[in-house]
Amino acid sequence: MLAKRIIPCLDVRDGEVVKGVQFRNHEIIGAIEPLAARYAAAGADELVFYDITASSDARVVDKSWVERIARQIDIPFTVAGGISSIEQARELLAMGADKISINSPALRNPDLINTLVDEFGQQCIVIGIDSFYDAETDRYLVYQFTGDESKSQQTRWQTAEWLQEVVSRGAGEVVLNCMNQDGVRQGYDIKQLKQMRALCPVPLIASGGAGCIEHFTDVFTAAEVDGALAASVFHKNTVVIAELKQALIDAGIAIRPLEQTQ
Amino acid sequence: MSLVIVDTSCANLSSVKFAFERLGVNPVISADASVIRSADRVILPGVGTAKAAMRNLHQLGLVDTLRQLQQPVLGICLGMQLLTESSAEGNVDCLGVIPTRTKAMQQGQESAQFPLPHMGWNTVVASTDNPLLKGLDSSAYCYFVHSFAVATDAYTLATTQYGNTRFASMIGHGNFFGAQFHPERSGKVGATILKNFMELTDADSRT
Fold first, then answer.
1. pTM to 2 decimals?
2. Closest approach of chain A CAs to the CA of B206, in angstroms?
């Protein structure tokens, strides 16, 4: 049976792992490699490295660490941040990234999704969607350039429409980041994820809001997502992956158990 | 023991190379027929589409070379599918060294319940005496990413269940072996499989 995935996300800025609250006030967590190795050893099923400033600064993600990570860890990992051309994607995949995740550049140029899927295959093209719940209009809206508060802006897309658009263009996986929830640890946005799950025929990863073990149990049972992504609860050891996985197994959720250390 | 990773011009070769380096093996990446022929072990990696990969192998002039190899060969993911007779992905003839076919996985009616690609960690269950799974639990988690698969048949070495489908997650025929999952990204289980591949005996390759 396919296991649900636990995915620590390492937000990278200027070569260091950082974490902000609702995308603001980033604090430094530590160097990339030791954290990656620690999470792989602790039982993470996959890792995501997100260069949160790349898109908004019109810079390309600093790639030197990608190959070092690929050498070190034996679980899959995704790299995101400012990838807007076939050449950039090719380089990251050649260095050992298993998947690349596109967010703002896909909104600017949706054809980029088709181009990348045609060139590298559906299996390694992930689309990240930053979705904001607007209480006034009761709508889920797609935002871009969220790595930098001063440049973060609403797009013309509603979340459900954009999700269906990226899937129709061949996206192999969708990471739905519920912005209202991000960093506040009140739980995943089950209502929104459930809605989007019904529209999403490719793997769907929940992001934003994890604060305790129960939030993971809830998102897997209620929203039927394929994976749950989180950052601060893992960085700060609020949630220990080994305990999380045992709790999920006890709740009857399909989970890859921790490997025995030799 | 020499190991060559075939440079199919489309595959993510680094992660396979690094996985062997972690085992203390130093692989050579090559598209040179004589280098491939003289290796003790050959890995056929693959990402992308079967059509593009076969086109590349034809352009590189490697199709006959690969078909005639006598040493243990391990195809990974798309590389495993290339070992079969044909793939529905682009309706393309493949190497045909394992007499089975690669077909599209079927999306169930409940697409949200069983999304495609089949992506993530799933259990690999050995269906015969499988030398590549030596030392592992009877049901071990490995990392998959694919939308095409081989049906179970006489050449199946291990199976995996997804939705209502049980497909061949490992296949073998003579000296040719295939893994639908990515051992290079499957933690300690994957490392054990790659180590077992390096330690295959002549007897393992004749079954």
1. 0.93
2. 31
